[in-house]
């Protein structure tokens, strides 16, 4: 993670959230690379993050150690708002960068009062939580009702890097709530149908349009 001072171009972003008049000296611009965690479930979560650019995946890890994918996030979202609203000191879920992610990092200890007293910020938090609840319900239904193939195609479409899917398959199986063998069979089926091609570099997406078609409901 790279951290640097905010620039003048970031002030309008703060103004949209009613924080334009706040001294930004304790805020920072953070950049996370693919694979880095922005939030890690159960670990300290002392900040709120206004995401500027990038894509992320959100997942939960149960006491048994099993992991389940919750949803995907993209730019123009807020992270850490659940912890702020619940006054939690640790992250409720894990958020991992899929692409490079750029965000404004706001320490709660320094700015909590300003955030809680900003009507535009609270309105944004309310809208954010409502939207996330809506999509969380849809994704939960998809996890229960949709086929593994559809969920896998959606996962590959969202997490591929330059047309290649290189994720660790044992971890993907856990995240998608399936067995390693079932995952392999599904990947082999997609290869036979010309959607993917197995290479030494990973699974190459040969037909992105078909991949997205198979995941369009998720």
Q: What integer value in Å does the Rg equal?
A: 19 Å
String of helices and strands? EHEEEEEEHEEHHHEHHEEH
Q: What's the total count of β strands?
A: 12
Report the sheet-strand fraction.
15-25%
Query: What percent of residues adopt helix (DSSP H or I)?
Result: 25-40%
Give the overall silhouette: elongated
Features:
39% helix; elongated; alpha+beta; four-stranded antiparallel beta sheet; single chain; 8 helices
Description:
Strand 11 and strand 12 form a beta hairpin. The protein has 8 helices and 12 strands. It starts with a strand and ends in a 5-residue tail after the last helix. It has a 5-stranded antiparallel β-sheet. A 4-stranded antiparallel β-sheet has the order 3-8-5-6. Strands 10-12-11 form a 3-stranded antiparallel β-sheet. With 218 residues, the chain is an alpha+beta fold. The mean pLDDT is 90. The protein is elongated.
Task: List the topology elements.
Elements: E1 2-4, H1 11-16, E2 28-32, E3 37-39, E4 47-53, E5 56-61, E6 67-73, E7 78-79, H2 81-86, E8 94-97, E9 101-107, H3 108-116, H4 119-145, H5 148-159, E10 164-165, H6 169-175, H7 180-192, E11 196-199, E12 202-205, H8 208-213
State the gist of this model.
With 218 residues, this protein is α+β, with helices and mostly antiparallel strands.
């Amino acid at each position: 993670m790279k951290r640097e001072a905010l620039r003048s171009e970031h002030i309008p972003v703060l103004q949209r959230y009613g924080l334009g008049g706040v001294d930004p000296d304790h805020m920072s611009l953070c950049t996370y690379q693919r694979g880095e965690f922005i939030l890690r479930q159960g670990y300290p979560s002392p900040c709120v993050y206004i995401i500027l650019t990038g894509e992320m995946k959100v997942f939960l890890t149960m006491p048994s150690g099993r992991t389940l994918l919750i949803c995907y996030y993209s730019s123009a979202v807020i992270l850490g708002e659940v912890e702020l609203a619940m006054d939690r000191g640790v992250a409720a879920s894990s958020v991992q960068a899929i692409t490079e992610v750029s965000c404004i990092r706001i320490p709660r200890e320094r700015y909590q009062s300003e955030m809680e007293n900003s009507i535009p910020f609270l309105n944004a938090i309310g809208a954010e939580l409502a939207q996330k609840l809506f999509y969380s319900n849809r994704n939960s239904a998809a996890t229960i009702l949709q086929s593994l193939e559809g969920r896998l195609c959606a996962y590959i479409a969202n997490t591929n890097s330059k047309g290649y899917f290189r994720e660790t398959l044992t971890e993907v199986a856990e995240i998608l709530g399936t067995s390693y063998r079932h995952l392999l069979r599904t990947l082999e089926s997609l290869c036979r149908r010309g959607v993917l091609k197995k290479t030494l570099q990973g699974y190459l997406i040969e037909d992105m349009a078909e991949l997205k078609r198979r995941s369009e409901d998720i």
